[in-house]
Amino acid sequence: MSTTAPRPESTGSVTDELVTANQEYARKFTDPGMDARPVRRVAVVACMDARLDLHAALGLRLGDCHTIRNAGGVITDDTIRSLTISQRALGTRSVVLIHHTGCGLLDLTEDFRHELELEVGQRPSWAVESFKDIDQDVRQSLARVRTSPFLPHRDDVRGFVFDVTTGLLREVG
Ligand SMILES: [Zn+2]
């Protein structure tokens, strides 16, 4: 599939388009017979940003890795939950964290949470996890993984910033 190919005009919902695409996918699909344990024993935590094609950017193939994505690619309790299951139940050993330039979280502050509370009358239990300094946020995320008592494998944990204009990763030490 080309990412630049024009899509046919549609008056239906985007979900209908996805379901149609799935039927085409399944028509050509053959069961790869894979195990649930990632072949390359790595879990990648990344931002949900639509410009970040993780498999293409990292040379990953189907079955290679666990992919855990959220707004910012931040390490929350739920990210730790997924990493814990990934390592303890499904055999991964390495963790790769990927933030990126131009992240939507750079424009937000914790005021987002306050404004939300004023609007809906309920304070969200979660932090926005906004940040101003992307490198510092990668370091913060690295620290959260490296200090988590739930993770048995914390030796190979590395963090990067993906440049959405060049496609290159830059490691944050
Ligand atoms: Zn982002």
Automatic annotation (TrEMBL):
Catalysed reactions listed for this entry: hydrogencarbonate + H(+) = CO2 + H2O
InterPro entries the record matches: Carbonic_anhydrase, Carbonic_anhydrase_sf
Residues noted as binding Zn(2+) in the record, renumbered to the chain: C47, D49, H100, C103
Domain of life: Bacteria
SMART domains to which the protein is assigned, alphabetical: Pro_CA (SM00947)
Keywords: Metal-binding, Zinc
A Pfam family this chain is assigned to: Pro_CA
Function: Catalyzes the reversible hydration of carbon dioxide to form bicarbonate.
UniProt family annotation: Belongs to the beta-class carbonic anhydrase family.
Protein name per the record: carbonic anhydrase
Organism whose genome encodes this protein: Streptomyces albus
